[in-house]
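TEACHING EXERCISE
Course module: macromolecular assemblies
Task: Read the component lines below, then compare them to the predicted structure of the full complex.
Student: A.B.
Group: 4
Components provided:
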Amino acid sequence: MAHADAAAGARGDGDAVMTATSAVSTLDQVMQRWEPVIGLEVHGQLLTQSKMFCGCSADYIGSPPNSNTCPVCLGLPGMLPVMNRVAIEYTVRSALALNCEIPEHSKFDRKNYFYPDLPKGYQISQWDMPLSLNGHLTFTVDGEEVRCGITRVHLEEDTGTLQHAGDILQQARSSVVDLNRAGVPLMEIVGEPDLRTPAQAREYLVRLRQILVYIGVNDGNLEQGSFRCDANISLRKYGDTGLGVKVEVKNMNSFRAVQRALEFEIVRQGRLLDQGQTIAQETRGWVEAKGATISQRSKEYAHDYRYFPEPDLPPLHLSAEFVDRVRAALPELPQQLAERLQREHGLSAYDAANLTAEREDARAFEALVAAGVPAKVAANWLMGEVARLARETRIPLQGSGLGLEGLASLIKLVEAGTINGSTAKELLEELYLAGGDPAAAVRERGLGQVSDQAELERLVDAVIAENPAAVADFQGGKEQALQRLVGGVMKATRGRADAKVVTGLLRERLAS
Amino acid sequence: MSRETVAELGARLRRGDATPTELAAQARTALESIADLHPVLRYTDALTERQAGRAARILAESPEEAGPLCGIPFAYKDVLCVEGVETSAGSKILEGFIPPYTGTALQRLLDAGAVPVAVTNCDEFAMGSSNENSAFGPVGNPWDPSRVPGGSSGGSAAVVSAGAVPFSLGTDTGGSIRQPASFCGVAGFKPTYGRISRYGLIAFASSLDQIGPFTRSVEDAAHVFTAMAGHDPRDSTSSPAPVEPVAEQLARGVQGMRLGIPREYMAEGLEPGVRSAVEAALAQLEKLGATLVEVSLPSTEAALSTYYIIAPAECSANLARMDGVRFGLHVDRKSLTDTYLETRGQGFGPEVKRRIMLGTYALSSGYYDAYYRQAQKVRTLIAEEFDRAFESVDALVSPTSPIVAFPKGDKSDPLSMYLCDILTLPVNLAGLPGISIPCGLSEGLPVGLQVIGPRLQDARVLRVAHAYEQSTPWHTQMPPPAPAVTGTPS
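Instructor-supplied answer key:
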């Protein structure tokens, strides 16, 4: 599906030179001839209370334009930055989770360029002495283990935001500047060009986002841009070790967009190379509506950022004690957690991966197990009905009316045989948002299973008497006829009987 | 009042012979009387009134809480932000800019009860050595209005020199307090880098800028310094070290001290009158019991080029915020690029543009290693040479400037202007405390003596300067009365 999208997008791309006679190559065909080399740069806003260098709130979403600002983040003359220590700690935490080294000495630098969303005319960032270096992230795609190097994780400040009439600033008739976001701590995670397929790129991002959310430094919101990704991609012949001319792709605000944009680029670049053309080194933007990338800026206009050490901030010294403390406080990472759930609770790799995708799900699972629910039962409920309701209502279990405790007591009613599975599902549906004690509901509304043996035997006998044809069929060897009789008993109990018990009773009666 | 020091005026206030409001009014009249020199850009009327009233209340209600600066009028350089008062950094691009905050140094003076009266003229963004780079016109030297007062804090030096206010504030990035103090015959103190918060100071070169006072006596400089010094959480480069009490050290004299004379600072290029005044000062210090030792600072020669890479590099970034988007001058053009170009093209003067160009070039890809990185290395060498010198001497003594105040328009080529600061720049590069005090006249114009100390030894610098000052009459010298005075002289 995605392949078709990419091919369709390529046809609409004004930059790609094509002749009516040229064969239209598909992604698969291009990838047979050319090996994609992909490296991702991820920017993640840190979940600190305040901005990177001033006391303004880092939670800027929803504030009226330019209300979440102060003289420091407005870049007024005479103002000075003061480092947010928590942001340093969060970056180190992230770097450690990504297996990075933390050098003892680090510093901030000024990255100089003019743009209205950059109030000081420079961004405080890190150039040659980042907070961390040389990490890696390992994950599995289609059963194959992929190890992607992490060049560095460094810290900088976010810019403000612009809105203008027109696609790009240069053509806009008017623009408005909002500096609410300016100065929010922004962590940049630079990946090595170790990824070879769009699917690997996507999985890298999924895993990276998962880790950052797990360790509590980022909310992982691609749509709102608190987790953003730029991709560098080039093609080369298989077996080559050098790198082709790389294109930077921006403006992708979903995992799917990243994958589609990369697929589009592979096809676009592959066709150009097949035609003997060269790839222009440039920055391209993904346009979701067109399903295509378009050229934004060529290398000739590339910025010279004139980095130099930020004289307003002293160099950073990160002691071994500090790094050890952050390392010791690092929470269990998703992969470790998944392994532990398999080990301790005998879950399958699939179930463990599924339950650890979101940390809250894993927490819920462990809480249910701790409350006495068997592991497999807990996993099935969470991955099945609860996941469906959470998706449909857009409210996670922990925020629902029923809550974790309600779910535990509901499952325990089933386990104890008080209610059957279908009653439990109906109750879950009803109580998920509304809340309430499942045991009380069962009691008050008589939803408890008919477990009185004499009563059940009476009902079974009545159904046998009322359905001579089905009885004859069953006794004549038609096994499925028994289901009609079970259904009759269930109907008579309004679904409150245990189907297994009823089936057993029927077999007993009809055999005698 | 023109000869009176902070200490003397303070005594009058405490005796009840004057009120803060009267002193502020006298200062205002005196400043207006030297309007021809153009040292004042604007008066701080409402703030003056408010602050004088506050000081009066402190003096009346809790005199024991009144420090030495309570009720004392002063002026400050147009690069220091005070809430509600226009601050333009001597530039068209910031004309009309009213900061919504008060810098830490100023706030501490306000807290001490000092009364701001006026904002003083200066070179645009503190870039210059003659005050001829102000977008609002040059300043005349009270000793000879046809000559420059020095720069960049020319206005602040002139108002103290003329006796209009007992003290003023300047900033010193490469000599911008000490050189005008030398030219105008007053004391000008640049404390250790990081000793006084830069919060609220419109930056020229962040790693070099430091705020300091102009005064008529070293004791006054110590008072003003003490009120402003100390760590500020809003300036990460401000030193967390406690401020040592200065007053106790002041009177200890120089008996037994070893004072170094940097050979390279007494080399050719010194005007004969400057040389003879400084040599006499050295002899005086020896007479007071100091031992004079010749020392060598061989990298001095490289200081000028080092400074003119680092300072412009930093300023090229610091001044990037002057882009016409949020404050100050905005020249509206069709495209963003043209708006930037026209706003900055019209807003900045030639010297500021020159330094932005120099700094941008020095930081450019391909040139960074050859210029900026190399300059940082030399800067380290210069600092290390000072450190070595201070292993064998307690302080260094030298001329502040190789020349006395020169006629306006005399140094039209930038390099000859830059050379004026050759004896002050190295001190900023090393982040050391330095003071200039009057040490005589050459052809009727003041000569300055510079005392330099190790990092954070601000008190020692003041102690040497005080010992010299108290044994000579130079600090009591006043400029000759101006030939044409407007307004009412005080």
